[in-house]
């Protein structure tokens, strides 16, 4: 048995500790005087600088994926919810569209250093899907599977944030196939690889499992304002 040496002074641990203090200050509405989170511009609605560190705002929305863009006619499409839920469910397109529909405007930060600001989305809140399927108290993580065999993972707490949506409209048009249509997930407060295009399954779990990029050296936590890109 060998142990990974623990360095309490590592930058990563320092950043995490600072983030914990930062969030506590936000919650308690106290002034924040330390240097974190990083970034530029006026504060956004979450209290973070509009532009995270190392990012550049772009006008056109680039396409990034593994090169397979699955063709998903709506009558073939379904979204499966499984794992630690009381009611495992497979939603057809019509059933998905019958869920409460939300609109939001949020920013999209790609780890390859571009950000597309102020995207107007329409879709279903992740938390409404979780509620509908009755997530069990033992669930702490979500594992997401996509139709191109991509996967990603996140803590349940992150997935339940108010701005995490499964979107089907972008700028008042159906989400284009190359951006993950008919439905993709978005995670505005984490780097965009945590949001699966062509989402097909949500698995609620009591333990974490690394997804496609997380297994290949991307950070598991993926916090843009901590410049938390690679592990
Ligand atoms: N299914 C799937 N989702 C995915 C990916 C992918 O390859 N397949 N790439 C991720 C990465 S690395 C990024 S940066 C964003 C890119 O989304 P976009 O192509 O709409 O800009 O999708 C994420 N979601
Ligand atoms: Mo990416």
Structure description:
The chain is α+β, with helices and mostly antiparallel strands and 231 residues long. It has a single domain (37-64, 72-226), classed as Oxidoreductase, molybdopterin-binding domain (Sulfite Oxidase, Chain A, domain 2), CATH 3.90.420.10. It is 15% helix and 29% strand. The protein is built from 4 helices and 13 strands. It has helices at residues 11-27, 93-97, 126-133, 156-159, and strands spanning 40-43, 49-51, 56-57, 78-83, 89-92, 102-109, 114-125, 141-146, 151-155, 165-170, 173-174, 184-186, 199-205. The strands form 3 sheets. Strands 3, 6, 7, 10, 11 and 12 form a 6-stranded mixed β-sheet that branches. Strands 5-4-13-8-9 form a 5-stranded mixed β-sheet. Strands 1-2 form a two-stranded antiparallel ribbon. A hairpin with a 2-residue loop joins strand 10 (165-170) and strand 11 (173-174). It is globular and about 50 Å long. 34% of the residues are buried. The model has no long low-confidence stretch (mean pLDDT 93). The site of molybdenum atom has 6 residues, from loops.
CATH topology: Sulfite Oxidase, Chain A, domain 2
Ligand names: the ligand Nc1nc2c(c(=O)[nH]1)N[C@H]1C(S)=C(S)[C@@H](COP(=O)(O)O)O[C@H]1N2, molybdenum atom
CATH architecture: Alpha-Beta Complex
Q: Report low-confidence residues grouped into runs of 5 or more.
A: none
Helical segment tally?
4
The fraction of residues assigned to DSSP E strands is: 25-35%
What's the CATH H-level superfamily name?
A: Oxidoreductase, molybdopterin-binding domain
Judging from the principal axes of the Cα atoms, what is the shape? globular
Rg over CA atoms? 18 Å
Count of structural domains:
1
The secondary-structure class comes to alpha+beta
What do the pLDDT scores average to?
93
| Main pleated sheet | 6 strands, mixed
Compute the number of strand runs.
Answer: 13
State the helicity in percent bands.
10-25%
Helix-strand pattern: HEEEEEHEEHEEHEEEE
- N-to-C span: 23 Å
């Amino acid at each position: 048995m060998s142990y990974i040496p623990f360095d309490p002074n590592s930058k990563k641990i320092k950043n995490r500790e600072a983030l914990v203090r930062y969030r506590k200050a936000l919650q308690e509405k106290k002034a924040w005087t330390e240097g974190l989170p990083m970034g530029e511009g006026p504060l956004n609605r979450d209290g973070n600088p509009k532009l995270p560190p190392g990012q550049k705002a772009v006008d056109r929305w680039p396409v990034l994926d593994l090169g397979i863009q699955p063709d998903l006619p709506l009558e073939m499409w379904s979204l499966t919810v499984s794992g630690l839920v009381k009611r495992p469910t497979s939603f057809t397109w019509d059933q998905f569209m019958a869920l409460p529909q939300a609109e939001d405007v949020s920013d999209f930060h790609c780890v390859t250093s571009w950000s597309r600001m102020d995207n107007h989305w329409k879709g279903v809140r992740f938390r409404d899907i979780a509620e509908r399927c009755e997530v069990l108290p033992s669930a702490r993580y979500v594992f997401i599977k996509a139709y191109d065999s991509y996967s990603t993972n996140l803590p349940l707490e992150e997935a339940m944030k108010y701005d995490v949506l499964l979107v089907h409209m972008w700028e008042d048009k159906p989400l284009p196939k190359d951006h993950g249509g008919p439905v993709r997930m978005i995670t505005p407060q984490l780097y965009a690889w945590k949001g699966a295009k062509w989402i097909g399954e949500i698995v609620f779990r009591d333990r974490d499992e690394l997804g496609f990029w997380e297994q290949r050296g991307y950070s598991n936590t993926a916090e843009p304002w901590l410049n938390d890109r690679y592990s």
